[in-house]
Specification:
homodimer, alpha+beta, 7 helices, about 40% helix, about 15% strand
């Protein structure tokens, strides 16, 4: 079947650039629920992401059980306390003041794993770079994030976790690697600058800091 | 300064879904050049991606030197020959028939690294999951990919490489980890299904294959 590809015009590209600019890591959520049909829609879109060898290694786990959510929240609390102990002086004071997760408020908890032993894709493209499976799951997170933001939903990526403990708390297969633990919900506020920049933790550089030629 | 966030309407979300559906891993490029200003525009957009602790660990290397490009192409050729040797029978015949990179044709070669020792971000969010730095670079690749496709540009991610040899050929700092080697150019054709699905290598599953609840 022949399908005519869509034409994306300059106005769309400009709008897309606004989406990139206003996508934020959100840690302050309203408690209103998110329509489960919308969550499924976002996950279906995430499945359109690229994956190595078309392996589709993303495994999405909606964490609904209160005890499991509590275990993740406690995991974060302990891991974050350990992290704070690494800083001294003014930096420790700043770190302690940061809000680094919205686990208590977010109506949706989504854990994203990569199935490191999936037969899908028959190993193509991951022989010398097996980390491509995790990278494919990361691409799905970024797709979901953009689709969510376009609908006004906020997403926060929590990486201040002991991943082995999180996997145990969620009772997933041993071959699944935790890639992301996401909080999803309606944001309290909107910004076009990162919260860590506003909090004077880390400013953004310009392209010249990151571009090299060989 | 107060900035009013943009409103993204349903029409935009529908268009964005089309962008996700028509983003493809492209290995067949026309030889026409890509305007360097467009490449820089895409890289600047990629810098709007999320990064752990706002660490911005992405390091973009435009590979322009013919000898370095040849080294990467040879690296791919050897790595791909090794990979072929892992398959037998009909699968080996199918693998050998696949076009898995457009290195010879693509006008733009872009290597994307993660700086695993960057001081940016002051270690935040990567203490227990140091792989978050590489994941942040992956997010930037996905952002660039979507921005490129919106402008009709194709991107192909080559992971059939020996990453240590590639890093040596590009003479980058020892702490930079190769995350992606991208071919960028104007595609010969457009599809809304993955090339590996059309070639009967690996079909796509549905969301029910990938969604779990706990």
């Amino acid at each position: 079947m022949t399908v005519t590809p869509p034409e994306f015009d300059d106005a769309f590209s400009a709008r897309l650039a606004e989406l990139f600019a206003w996508r934020r890591d959100v840690r302050r959520f309203r408690s209103d629920p998110v329509d489960p049909a919308l969550v499924k829609k976002l996950l279906a879109l995430a499945c359109l992401s690229p994956s190595v060898g078309n392996s589709q290694p993303w495994r999405f786990v909606l964490v609904e059980d209160a005890a499991r959510r509590t275990a993740i929240t406690e995991n974060f609390r302990r891991t974050n306390a350990d992290a704070l102990a690494d800083y001294d002086g003014a930096q420790a004071v700043n770190y302690a003041s940061l809000k680094l997760a919205g686990l208590a408020e977010a109506p949706v908890h989504l854990a994203v794993f990569a199935d490191t032993e999936t037969s899908r894709g028959h190993g193509l493209g991951r022989r010398t770079m097996p980390e491509m499976l995790a990278y494919s799951a990361v691409g799905a997170v970024q797709t979901l994030w953009l689709a969510a933001r376009a609908r006004g939903l906020g997403v926060g990526w929590v990486s201040i976790l002991d991943p082995a403990e999180a996997s145990a708390a969620l009772d997933v297969p041993a071959d699944w690697k935790l890639v992301a633990y996401l909080c999803i919900g309606w944001p309290v506020e909107e910004h076009d600058d990162p919260e860590l920049e506003r909090a004077h933790w880390q400013a953004r550089g310009g392209l010249t800091d990151f571009l090299f030629r060989r």
